[in-house]
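Board notes (copied after class):
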Amino acid sequence: MNKSDKTGLVFFPAFDWAISPTHPEREERLLYTRDQIFEEGLMDLPRITEYKPRLATFKDIARTHFCVPQVKDQITEAHLVAAGGALVIADALMAGEIRNGFALVRPPGHHAMKVVHGNRGFCNINNEAIMTDYLRRKYGLKKIAIVDTDVHHGDGSQDIFYHDRDVLFISFHQDGRTLYPGSGFTNEAGGPTAFGRTLNIPLPPGTTDEGMHYVLEKHILPVLDDFKPDLVINSAGQDNHYTDPLANMKITAQGYASLNAKLKPDIAVLEGGYAIETALPYVNTGIILAMAGMDYSGVTEPDYTPGMFTLGPEKKARIEEIVAELSTVWERRDSTDIEVLRAKQDFFQRQKNIYYDTDGINECQTERLRLCPDCGGYLSTASQAYHHNGVQYNVLCLSIPFDGCHECREEVYAEYEMAVSNKFYDYVYFQDRVGDTYRGYGREKPLEWEEV
């Protein structure tokens, strides 16, 4: 990549997409930010350049997700533009046109899991995950780190990369015992072939800038130094802010800007944040200035006074305890004896129950990972979804990893053909990331298709 001192921005407020007119996830989330940025004259600065978003393709989405029944059924054009906005920043970065970039786009995505039956947590498709897989496919990047700073656990991103040893996923968030989606605990640390590549930091409600920066400096930055990713992506949720109506944290705009200055992400992608007037314009302005390497010390909320929030001794002790535990997990990341596991069984299996809060869908999954000696192993996911209106789907999803070996590819193709012929599943899908081929079969028509 060529050297550049510019920070790239993409704005996409998605005027034509909303869950409801008064829903917290609405277009005003970005309109107030855009007004603030233009009022401050940021867009006139030589170190900031704006890009127009583009449409992601169905293939870009199918590389990451299994959308039931098809990709076209789970998205609108707004989703394609939001994901495409992130891809525009990725391309600009890889072309050397910018030093870093921020995709301020909606709808958000980090609650969208590998299998998609509908909208959960305001998310249908996962913008950062789609961008991560796009970067790996198009540019051959090997190792990518995603740091999720949203107040809600990034359970979708975790699910997508849980068995991927080349993607480090770190999420700090309000303790799942007190907030949606009720997950993101320290024992969720990655599958057997990727142990320690998922690190969850569940923070107590009321955590302040001090607590957040302790986590960053004592855990996240040292782990990134060890992992040595080709790129760092920030899932830039801003609902840890002290005025956010959906959470209970005490982070300020200065806290967010300083975090970004220390983290130095190559790309940030907007996630949550629902204090439309009192937080987002200030937080986003601070982040943009920090990414551009400019002074952000004057960015403060009108109602904030220094010393307004303090971190009590009990919360501080709890945060220190969590960091110590996760440091041990990271140190043990390569301690899993895969050869012993392979000697006992060919597949690692786990079951999951997933609830789609927005669309009222209950899903049951059985996930089987091939413990392959030559690659990351293919993943087989049997999913049954029960919709609130009585609709049911029974699907099988097969995924070959980017480093998939010849034997795993042959097994997946054979399993796909067998599943298509045995009439048990309503839909059968496979992702061949080696060949960049993404196919599906629907029994009702019957119909087979390939996403392009």
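Comment from the instructor: The CA atoms of residues 61 and 185 lie 28 Å apart. Residues 338-450 form one domain.
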